Amino acid sequence: MKKVFFLLAAALVLHACNNSYQQMAIRKKPKNVILLIGDGMGLTQMSTAYYYQDETPSFSRFLHIGLHQNQPTDAQITDSAAGATAFSTGYKSYNSAIGVDRDTIPRETILELAARRGQATGVIATSSVTHATPASFFAHAEDRDLEDKIASQLHASPVDFFAGGGIEFFAYREDGLNYLDSLASAGFLVDTTELKRPAAWNSNQKYGYLLAADGMPKMSEGRGDFLPRATEMAIEYLSQDKDGFFLMVEGSQIDWGGHANDADWIIDEVKDFDQAIKAALDFAEKDGNTLVIVTADHETGGMSLSAAEVRMQRTYKHINPTFSTGGHSATLIPVYAYGPGAAKFMGIYQNNEIFDRMLEALRW
Ligand code: MG
Ligand code: ZN
Q: Rounded CA gap, 100 and 123, in Å?
């Protein structure tokens, strides 16, 4: 009998917690937003976290889930530039567009908007920081390939913290200019050797980590815990701002594994991205004022967790990942949201509505 009462009480407490979480997800306004983008991470890529690791994936911590459709203005299938620009500006644009609309007009990004409201901001990627996805949050360029131009905009942008690769776009440029100097003059402490946590974060200082000539190494080449640790460090630093913060974190190479039709590459990169999500959720859970959104720009590889065939016979005993393309696919993309405002991300909608829904949640 005692046991029954105990179970009943426990169930009631759980119900109450879940209920108050639901209320917060619907009614409360977040102070901070962390947007995590797994480039090329369709439902199949995300599913690998459930088949190729023992730990329960961070994805299981989300209660509010939606789907987005991601067509750009000039095609059926999006690239990462148009995909990220839709999230960052609320405008659907053409493939290759970086923070500009379909007429190449620069549009204010959520990161710029956050800064204008006094918030601290950051971008983290495992590509170069000038690559399409991170660039679409702080830069404006008519073409993603203009990484030199994109690099030249970082020091003048409102970014306070960045981490990723791309030294060659700041120094050793064709035009001979050195934008590492410009970053220093703009108040950045730029580290090009290691992801080192300072003894104390100085809120009068900005921090940049450029740790590879172009993209960061693959996980299998020893990137280690760069992505989750950079995420933790950014949160420590940015959360000192009394006005809140906006942080974009990209698992860039899930896409690269997809282009290479390399399942192991994808599996490793999804695992790593899952750890970055964990860092964001652990903070958000403690903080109670942080909206965490996880999504992808598009799926890459037309990946499937197919049944393995043994001697031409299909068997359901094992998975053998297969691919239908070396490029992107048009499949709808999951959106996972946690925290105040998370309920806004349920349903099926267009990719640029992620921008609108972030603003709605923030009541900006
Ligand atoms: Mg990308
Ligand atoms: Zn791609």
A: 18
Q: Which residues of 138-174 are buried (b: 16+ CB within 10 A; e: fewer)?
A: bbbbebbebbbbbbbbbbebbbbbbbbbbbbbbbeee
Would the pTM count as exceeding 0.85? yes
Q: In this structure, are residues 352 and 90 in contact, taking their beta carbons and an 8 Å threshold?
A: yes
pLDDT tens, residue by residue, 73-86: 999 999 999 999 99
What's the gap in Å between 270 CA and the centre of ligand 1?
14
CB 278 within 8 Å of CB 56: no
Domain boundaries, the chain: 29-362
- How far is the C-alpha of 220 from the C-alpha of 7, rounded, in Å? 46
Task: State the fold for domain 29-362.
Answer: Alkaline Phosphatase, subunit A (3.40.720)
The percent of residues above 70 in pLDDT, for the chain, comes to 95
pLDDT confidence tier of residue 10, bands split at 50, 70 and 90: low
Query: What pLDDT, on a 0 to 100 scale, did the predictor assign at position 9?
Result: 65
Look up residue 218 and give its DSSP letter.
P
What HEC string does 68-102 produce?
A: EECCCCCCCCCCHHHHHHHHHHCCCCCCCCECECC
Tell me how far apart the alpha carbons of residues 147 and 178 are, in angstroms, rounded to a whole number.
Answer: 14
Is-catalytic flag, 80?
Answer: yes
Catalytic residue selected from 20, 47, 60, 80? 80
Assess contact for 99 and 81: CB atoms under 8 A. Answer: no
Determine the distance separating the centroid of ligand 1 and the alpha carbon of 289, expressed in angstroms.
27
